[in-house]
UniProtKB/TrEMBL annotation:
Origin species: Caldanaerobius fijiensis DSM 17918
EC id: 4.2.1.10
SUPFAM superfamilies: Type II 3-dehydroquinate dehydratase
GO MF term set: 3-dehydroquinate dehydratase activity
The encoding gene: aroQ
Protein name per Swiss-Prot or TrEMBL: 3-dehydroquinate dehydratase
Keyword annotations of the record: Amino-acid biosynthesis, Aromatic amino acid biosynthesis, Lyase
Catalysed reactions, as listed in the record: 3-dehydroquinate = 3-dehydroshikimate + H2O
Length: 149
């Protein structure tokens, strides 16, 4: 199984900005955790971060016929980027939307995700563990599809 992780805008400042919301772990620390857990689960993982909507779309497009799953934290684009939504839908690859914070306990504008209708699920509020839980989903899904326990 091959999974693409996409970190959206401002996630490169995780561990620096709003530590009370996003935690003290930096993006490199989060990526190390993702990579280590993926290895334990037998998942090949590619990780990318961009602050640019167009670049995120390009990363999603590059997943077509290359990966089995996508994990995306689109940051603020979650709430209004129909272009990212359309890109996810166009590649027809299972995608899990993740958020470090619980978006439903924050400002009202964060309560709506335009991405979730085209994702298989959403995981929010567990900090860096949100990504690891998404990896667990893909591992279990892959095992179920391949008859492995």
């Amino acid at each position: 199984m091959h999974v693409q992780v996409i970190h959206g805008p401002n996630l490169n400042f995780t561990g620096i900005r709003e530590k009370d919301i996003y935690g003290i772990a930096g993006l490199e620390d989060i990526n190390r955790r993702i990579t280590a857990r993926a290895k334990e689960l037998g998942i090949i993982v590619d990780i990318a971060q961009s602050n640019s909507e167009g670049e995120i779309i390009d990363i999603i497009h590059s997943c077509y016929k290359r990966v089995d799953g996508i994990i995306i934290n689109a940051g603020a684009y979650t709430h209004y980027s129909y272009a990212i939504r359309d890109a996810i839908k166009s590649v027809d690859i299972p995608c899990v939307e993740v958020h470090l914070s619980n978006i439903y306990s924050r400002e009202e504008f964060r309560h709506k995700s335009v991405l979730s209708p085209v994702c298989v699920g959403q995981i929010a509020g567990f900090g860096a563990y949100s990504y690891l839980l998404a990896l667990e989903y893909f591992s279990l899904k892959w095992s179920d599809q391949n008859g492995k326990d």
